[in-house]
Structure of N-carbamoyl-L-amino-acid hydrolase:
Amino acid sequence: MTEISSERLRDRFDRFNEIGATERGGVNRPTLSDANKRARDRLVEWFQDAGLEVTVDEVGNIFGRRAGRNDDLAPVLVGSHVDSQYNGGRYDGVIGVLGGLEIVETLNDAGVETERPIEVVSWSNEEGVRFQPDMLGSGVFAGKFDPEFARSLEDKEGKRFGEELERIGYRGDAPCEPRELHSYFELHVEQGPKLADAGLSVGVVEGVYGFVWFDVTFSGSADHAGPTPMHLRHDALVATSDVVEAVRRIAGTEGDDLVGTVGSLDVSPNSINVIPETVDFTVDFRSYDDETVDRAADRVREEIEHAAAREDVEASHEVIMRIESQAFDDGCIETVAAAADDVGADYTRLVSGAGHDASYLNGFCPTAMVFVPSVGGVSHTEDEYTEWTDVVTGTEVLHRAVLEKANE
Ligand code: HGY
Ligand code: MN
Ligand code: MN
Ligand code: MN
């Protein structure tokens, strides 16, 4: 069997990550930004060079289709995302999309025809940093969100997803809706320490944590930091700090795999000598057990109300994202494990704490993922790093799994 080309993949990886490159070795390509547009343009060009039939749908998902011998059969879909965190890592999402492209190029070089079509996909707005919820493009595709809902989303500057999509030229004509797929595979960095700590090169991913995202706002009273006596204050940031502490406490007591994060926080008027009037912040809880996630959500709602009462400020909170934990398809998992055995990779089975587009695909077609190690378990930062030999091994595992299913 012709194996994937490390050199070609490395060349594409380096050239792709020139786009939005940061001085500290990361990338800054938030969804629908100019850098994201340039990344999309390069991807479409490479898809076309590889002879793929390119389709962009109404929320900006990009598909590249390679015909099968029996082209009416449901395709095998392989991919991930190319939007990044603000100052994020070079591997997150990118190795999954370029890995899918590399599979196509390898099959083209070898003149291999598959029974089924193969489609490579780059999903819109997986990260959800600018527009929440995350995994938006795959969520609309899976029928979880309405395309109009997606287009109506606003970022912190009040820019709308639909307008930004048009501005960068990626509001495609094709409808974004569920269609028959044979299976879906995604190669991704683990973004945690398990594989690196165990010295393994591949993870056979059996499922993904469920998670809930809250958007919370405390509204108190701005006032002068000097003459205002402490007992007369209604300080939105004091209420917020109670909840930040509570998130850490809840994560430590509700189930051993529960994690909780307050990642985004905006204070207004954010002035050194003004008592904070409003604070807008987010809460993220995750666990492989959905009841644990729901218990954590109930507890943090109580904590928000208690904090508001103590400080006598107004509280508003809404769930902006709730996705259930996902157990992937046994057949696809065993196909990945068999491919890892074929390649002679040292691997283990694990579940993902990070969310992935595969979570939504799993809702309507047999799905599985391949992980490669994150050095130091680090991700969502410019220091994200994976040994190139591991990227190549993971891509070859993906190649064999996809080929297996494309001839099923
Ligand atoms: O939130 C996540 O886990 C993913 O990076 N969107
Ligand atoms: Mn990702
Ligand atoms: Mn990510
Ligand atoms: Mn808000």
Notes: The chain has two domains: 6-208+326-406, 210-323. The chain has a mean pLDDT of 97. The first strand starts at residue 53 and ends at 56. The pocket of manganese (II) ion (ligand 4) is lined by residues 215, 217, 280 (CB under 6 Å).
